[in-house]
Design goal:
- The protein is of the alpha+beta class.
- 21% of the residues lie in helices and 31% in strands.
- The chain is built from twelve helices and 34 strands.
- Strands 1, 3, 4, 6, 7, 8, 9, 10, 22, 23 and 24 form an eleven-stranded mixed beta sheet that branches.
- Strand 30 and strand 31 form a beta hairpin.
- The chain is globular.
Length: 643
């Protein structure tokens, strides 16, 4: 069966994406949402030259297209005001009817793990009140679509995913930020909302940007060249990986344990344990045997004894004198301490051969814990045999490296796999929560992020669609304590670089030791405030906290001005913290700040001639400045970004 599977996989590599039968992308399906009041692109594939007719049950009019030489066709379907449910019918050599179609507002929701984080949360990273939120998530007019993760070396034509009505079952695993955003829109607008969630944790912004735009920037050409080469060689590398997989699985299934009691082979080398073998110059994944001679006391003869080896990366089978003692072969056990019991019938006095077959699938490999974790002992006996130190080792099998690069952080690959297939689906706008993976490259991000936004707008043929994003939350990243603050400031500056952008500030809801803050409700709500005011023209909604505008020096005082001071500035009765002034030599020094109307007065006895001002400019800082409507101010610096 395994050979048949691999043969099918190899054959699949030579099949084109096009289909001779009527085919639609996954997001044109039952229960979908189409953008209201627009000419919504609807497309798919059929026989080349075939006539296609598309109609919606809200109108008697049909729109037509003819499939091109590759079988691709597209129509522009006029949509009414929000409502439904409707049917959409597509006719060619066969007829497909999409049922329960709603007309409303469609938003793309993208980014990295803080966008991906579901309403039910993750182990060790909860979402506030998730059980209650899930139980309440019964909104049939909110429709949810999650794009399955996929990298691609050229733009793909389709994705995997399915529309679902919002229910406790579907909302639990859906993006929390996106859900809370959509729920707020629905509660204010009372019309259908479609949310297309396409995100991947730990990913960089350049992965979500098209090759053409990245080439124009110039910073990522080397990585793009690698991606282009992978595209050229993709079919060949897929075949190579399939054959290598067969060889590796054959090695894993083999029971050649002759090394377990080998006392004659002199080709073994020496390694001091515990350690990862990569740190000793053995840069491989695969199967490596370790062995050493242990001298068991006569008092232990015929007794059950204990064997501790600490953690082993990834799996192991452990032997004494050629007989299996125990094993750990499950996935994900690379951090588990090995604490084995040696059966009494295997324990003999004198010299014994202890052998460990270590199987490393990826990353580091070896018996890598602490020296005191490696020991052999009998319960109730004083003697303990220390097993740290020199062991003999022999490489049995080298796992072939994967030729098909599956790293999602290559430039353009997530755009190709998870955005390009959606183009040019009719949308109202996009929300975005990403930036953590670009910390340390703020100056570059200040160009890359606006480039990505403009890239998406161009490709969706919507030059000004709203793009609202979340400023990354305060978190102790380690290293340079200003790098994450600089990334936040690059995001803030995007507001003045591009029109029709908005930023949800999270300075008050970050968590020092959790990069995935639990309060996703306020994140979604703050994104919705921008949309309600700017996109849906509800001017009574206050959409932003204070944003730095400028500063003025008067003597030793620095007067800082802000926009979005609705209701005045406040620190909610607490002292203002984390304001600093820059002296004439460029050194930042702590300062005292106070509120005066809609301005902040900043002073420092250590700075005679202030040259700049900044606020909360650290990876982790607790926001203390708000406007009168309770929205937090963004951190900021008045100087140019340097990182």
């Amino acid at each position: 069966m395994k050979k048949l599977f691999v043969f099918t996989l190899i054959a699949f590599a030579f099949i084109s994406d096009a289909s001779a039968q009527l085919k639609l992308p996954a997001f044109f399906s039952d229960s979908m949402v189409l953008q209201q009041n627009t000419n919504a692109p609807v497309w798919g594939w059929a026989n080349a030259g075939e006539k296609i007719e598309v109609s919606g049950s809200w109108s008697s009019k049909k729109v037509e297209a003819v499939a091109d030489n590759n079988g691709k066709w597209m129509v522009k379907l006029p949509t009414p005001i929000a409502g439904g449910p409707y049917d959409v019918t597509i006719s060619a050599n066969e007829t497909k009817t999409l049922h329960d179609v709603l007309i409303g507002e469609v938003w793309i929701c993208s980014g990295q793990s803080n966008m991906e984080m579901p309403v039910q949360g993750w182990s060790g990273a909860p979402v506030n009140n998730s059980d209650a939120e899930i139980a309440e998530a019964n909104y049939p007019s909110i429709r949810l679509f999650t794009v399955e993760k996929n990298i691609a070396f050229t733009p793909r034509q389709d994705v995997k995913g399915a529309w679902a009505s919002c229910s406790p079952a579907s909302a639990a695993t859906f993006s929390a930020t996106a859900y809370f955003f959509g729920r707020e829109l629905y509660k204010h607008l009372h019309i259908p909302i479609g949310l297309i969630h396409t995100s991947w944790g730990g990913t960089v912004a350049e992965a979500w940007t098209s090759e053409g735009s990245l080439r124009a920037m110039g910073d990522f050409n080397k990585g793009l060249d690698v991606v282009s080469q992978m595209a050229i060689n993709f079919k060949a590398t897929l075949i190579k990986d399939s054959l290598n997989t067969i060889a590796w699985e054959k090695a894993l299934a083999g029971n050649n344990n002759s090394y377990a009691a080998d006392a004659t082979d002199t080709s073994w080398h020496t390694m001091t344990l515990p350690t990862t073998w990569e740190s000793k110059g053995l840069d491989i994944d695969g199967i490596v045997w370790f062995k050493r001679t242990v001298d068991i006391p006569a008092a232990w003869q015929g007794k059950t004894i204990k064997l501790d080896l600490g953690p082993i990366d990834d799996n192991d089978v452990t032997f004494l004198n050629g007989s299996v003692v125990d094993s750990t072969l499950q996935d994900g056990m690379w951090m588990k301490n090995r604490n084995y019991t040696v059966p009494a019938n295997l324990v003999k006095a004198g010299k014994n051969t202890l052998a460990v077959k270590v199987i490393d699938n990826a990353g580091g490999g070896g018996i890598y814990g602490k020296p005191e974790q490696l020991k052999l002992y009998a319960e109730g006996e004083k003697d303990t045999i220390n097993l740290s130190g020199d062991w003999l080792y022999k490489v049995a099998t080298v796992k072939p490296p994967v030729a098909t690069n599956s790293n999602p952080n290559q430039p353009s690959v997530l755009y190709n796999g998870m955005i390009a297939p959606l183009v040019p689906f009719a949308i109202k706008g996009a929300i975005w929560y990403q930036g953590e993976a670009n910390v340390g490259r703020a100056k570059q991000y200040s160009k890359l992020f606006p480039l990505m936004i403009s890239d998406w707008r161009r490709l969706f043929n919507e030059p000004g669609f709203p793009f609202y994003f979340v400023q990354i939350a305060p978190y102790n990243y380690g290293g340079d304590s200003t790098q994450a603050a600089a990334l936040r400031d690059a995001q803030r500056r995007t507001l003045t670089t591009l029109q029709n952008t908005g930023m949800a500030v999270t300075m008050d809801i970050g968590e020092a030791d959790n990069i995935h803050p639990a309060n996703k409700q306020d994140v979604g709500k703050r994104l919705s405030l921008w949309a309600l005011n700017k996109t849906y023209n509800n001017k009574s909604v206050v959409y932003s906290g204070p944003l730095y505008k400028s500063f003025e020096v008067k003597g030793k005082e620095v007067i800082v001005s802000f926009t979005n001071t609705d209701g005045g500035l406040t620190s909610n009765g607490k002292p203002l913290k984390d304001f600093e002034l820059q002296d004439a030599d460029g050194v930042w020094k702590p300062a005292t700040a106070s509120i005066k109307g809609d301005k902040i007065i900043v002073t420092s006895n250590a700075v005679a001639r202030p040259a700049g001002v900044r606020y909360a400019y650290y990876s982790y800082a607790e926001g203390t400045l708000f406007n009168g409507k309770g929205l937090p101010a963004s951190s900021f610096t008045s100087e140019d970004l340097k990182q």
